[in-house]
Fold Glycogen [starch] synthase.
Amino acid sequence: MTTDQTTQPQRDVHKALLFEIAWEVANKVGGIYTVLKSKAPVTSKEYGERYTMIGPLSYKSAPLEVETLEPDTPELRLTLESMKERGVKYLYGRWLIEGAPKVLLFDTGSVFSKLDEWKGDLWNIAGIPSPPNDTETNEAILFGYLVAWFLGEFVAHERKAAIIAHFHEWLAGVGIALCRKRQIDVTTIFTTHATLLGRYLCAGSVDFYNNLRNFDVDQEAGKRGIYHRYCIERAATHCCDVFTTVSHITAYEAEHLLKRKPDGVLPNGLNVVKFSAMHEFQNLHSVSKDRIHDFVRGHFYGHYDFDLDNTLYFFTAGRYEYRNKGLDMFVESLQ
């Protein structure tokens, strides 16, 4: 054991700090926003002030969703002041949702001048290419480098508590590879909610699950123009300390497409507030159903007339992707 290892105090794992990193923190662009928002009350209750969510700064939505605060610990203040001195713009505050978690949002545009330098560095350290015209990947690289920059400086100031960094989806994945390469003293978790290549394969007319073992993943990603994104996702998968998915079928998918078997499955959960009075629920249900009936009458009557009292309505809350979300299977099963 070296002298440094002997003298360096161990971090307190019982009062660990948790950073949850995702592109959709206070930034509603897809389904992960709902996942984060619905789990925040439980996580905030368990971790309290030791929990902070990190995302990109959207000047369109952040002013409506976040209450601005001053950094509330010396370690955080020193880290953010250092980054601000070097041109990084950010917003720190509380997300105005149930649980009121602290959020740190970075303005990727404030470091756009570093994009080419960071893309070159990513190629040199990880062999990950990045075409110039993919705006989404460029944003993911800027965001990943900002997160790694923050974590690297923060752990230098915060020496007592263990630090957990939980990353969601490939858009946050660059930060994981950088944490591993730079040997930043944080424990990293990567959660994929659906593999990137799996989404593209399912959207096409491919017998996906029966052929899952046989795909040449590099070739398939290349044919679809997402090889560089796939490389980011796969690097995050292999560089994280703990790899998780949200379902067993996604775990099976990840094992074959990302070449790592997940360490665990963390199902998505929504906190549904139950009605305390059954009559209140029944009244709302009746009012809502009458409104649906009115719409159907106006939309279909004269062309299609049917008995509304003998009609069942089905809804989906997923994206409008006929095959990818399984609507084709559902319609077929109705017969």
